[in-house]
Amino acid sequence: MKHISILVPDGQSNLTTISSIVGAYEIFIRANAHWEEKQQKTPYTIELVGAADKVDVYQGLFSVRSQKHVSEVPASNLIVIPSLVRSYEKALKGNQLLVKWIKEQYKNGAEVASMCTGAFLLASTGLLDGKSCSTHWAAGPEFRERFPRVNLKTDKLIIYQDGLYTNGGAFSFLNLIIYLVEKYYDRQTALYCAKIFQIDMGRNLQSEFSVFNGHKKHEDKEVLEVQAYFESHYQDRISIKELSEKLHVGRRNFDRRFIKATGITPLEYLQRVRVEATKNYLENTRKTVSEIMYDVGYNDDKAFRNVFSRFTGISPNDYKSKYNKERILS
Q: Between 20 and 30 A from 228 (CA), which of 74, 206, 235, 329?
């Protein structure tokens, strides 16, 4: 019988970890039961696998018990890594046995899926080097710093490459599990589970949920000044070229310094600041989209809508319909 392993990491668990372990386990068990009704056979053995017998959370308030030690699972078809406490050192130091086991299993043909910040543990195996992956958008800056060889795409909800699955933050792990159910069982089973657990199968972006906090953990004082200027003058007409001239730095060199310090170009930084301001207006005011467009420094409706959609995955009008406080309460 084929095997699905849901990992129970040691020393890396919080309530989100428990929810992703339990959520994944329950959905796979339900998928198994649905498949058995149709095919009269059990497709997968689904087990919680770890390097410790029990993992405590919040000083023992909750605990998760492994059903099998990794040494008792010689082969697994799919390994699922839950969300973790966001600490690379702990993920690597406290779970060396799991890291080694994951690498061996992948080498022998297993696929590996990480949920949310479980990508930190997956990345520590080296398997993501040179590949694309996703994780919680808030963990993006730290992840890029820790794993520069990985192509992180925090706008994507689910990314699959070479037998490795990664997904965005928090409870979006449900979308990943439904995605895996469709692949490992069939679409009918995935639809059944999506309906039972009321999970939207259509999502593949987490952009609309992200909050842009410009990366400022660097020591380039002039770049920090420009970042502060963008954030306080985003509503004005801003020329990147003129800013670089004021700093007596050539435009190309200015762009290189800005990218090195923040990870993105000056223009993209300004656009992201304006999009964040737009989201705030859309959420909290009665202003029309056209009024907001002028308030955040745009005078071209098409350009404004294209930029907003590119960074959030939805249109300004759709965003307002979903998140405006008065509309939600009405």
A: 206
